[in-house]
């Protein structure tokens, strides 16, 4: 671990490195997170977070994305510990979402991190909102509404299907809710869900039913073509962790159905019907097609 300690010691100087060397440095860090997330985060994340906070103040957009991807991977692999260890950095991420970060790739990464926290560590997300609302002298519900609104508005910045499904799962996790702000944003949440369903659902031409193509099973071995290399140990670790990731273990189709039914049960048929009327008719028809048979 001595080499890793030297790497961590020198990471404050990463901003002075070439972009290629910076990328290599972060790849090493990411590999250690996949190798032993708990040990790595407990031993190195505090210092790493301090360095990242400094780096993000004076770094290129490409560099920002590399830094933020480390945080995103930590949250993916260890949602509770990752959020705790990188807590000082997360308010800036949420602020970037609310302020509407202009650089699309940075905004996409902000939303990926925010989605991880909201979906997999909701109590931490609530405390983060409370902290930011206090600092901004703003109501918590108003801040949440701003986050959802910007998320819906900038969904097109997210090009990776994994992050698009994550955004849908995360926003759906706010349901069922009696909160008027969340109900006001219901139309946008449903729009994002339908977009994500288009991204990840494949139709069986024989039965006409849909399947979430991002679901993974421990019983399914990835098929290799003749010119593909067999998976490395790192690839195997990533796959094992992906099996526990909601993006790969939760059916978006089923999750949408369950959350909408729960909202309907909470509100009653009439009130829920009025809420659904806020959604564009064509979107509702597409949604019904995806949920057919459930």
UniProtKB/TrEMBL annotation:
> Domain of life, per the record?
Eukaryota
- One Pfam family this sequence matches: TPR_IPO11
Domain Importin-7/11-like TPR repeats positions: 7-291
Q: Does the keyword Signal apply?
A: yes
Q: Which GO terms describe its biological process?
A: protein import into nucleus
* Provenance organism: Muraenolepis orangiensis
Give the signal peptide as a residue range, or say none if absent. 1-19
Which InterPro entries does this UniProt record tie to the protein?
ARM-like, ARM-type_fold, TPR_IPO7/11-like
Q: Which GO terms describe its cellular component?
A: cytosol; nuclear envelope
Keywords attached to this Swiss-Prot or TrEMBL record, sorted alphabetically, are: Signal
Name of the featured protein: Importin-7/11-like TPR repeats domain-containing protein
């Amino acid at each position: 671990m001595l080499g890793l300690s030297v790497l961590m010691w020198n990471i404050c100087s990463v901003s002075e490195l070439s972009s290629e060397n910076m990328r290599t440095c972060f790849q090493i860090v990411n590999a250690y997170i996949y190798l032993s997330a708990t040990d790595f985060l407990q031993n190195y994340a505090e210092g790493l977070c301090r360095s990242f906070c400094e780096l993000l103040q004076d770094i290129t957009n490409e560099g920002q994305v590399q830094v933020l991807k480390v945080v995103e991977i930590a949250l993916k692999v260890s949602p509770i510990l990752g959020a705790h260890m990188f807590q000082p950095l997360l308010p800036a991420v949420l602020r970037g979402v609310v302020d509407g970060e202009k650089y699309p790739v940075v905004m996409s990464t902000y939303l990926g991190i925010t989605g991880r926290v909201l979906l997999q560590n909701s109590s931490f997300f609530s405390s983060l909102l409370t902290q930011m609302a206090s600092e901004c002298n703003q109501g918590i519900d108003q801040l949440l509404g701003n986050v959802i609104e910007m998320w819906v508005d900038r969904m097109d910045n997210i090009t990776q299907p994994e992050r698009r499904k994550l955004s849908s799962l995360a926003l759906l996790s706010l349901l069922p809710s009696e909160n008027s702000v969340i109900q006001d944003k219901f139309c946008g949440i449903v729009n994002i869900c339908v977009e994500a369903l288009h991204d990840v659902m494949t139709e069986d031409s024989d039965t006409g039913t849909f399947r979430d193509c991002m679901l993974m099973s421990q019983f399914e071995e990835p098929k290799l073509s003749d010119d593909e290399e067999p998976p490395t140990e790192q690839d195997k670790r990533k796959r094992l962790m992906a099996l526990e990731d909601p993006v790969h273990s939760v059916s978006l189709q089923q999750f949408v159905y369950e959350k909408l039914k729960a909202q309907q049960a909470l509100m009653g048929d009439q009130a829920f019907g009025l809420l659904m009327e806020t959604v564009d008719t064509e979107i509702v028809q597409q949604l019904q097609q995806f949920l057919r048979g459930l």
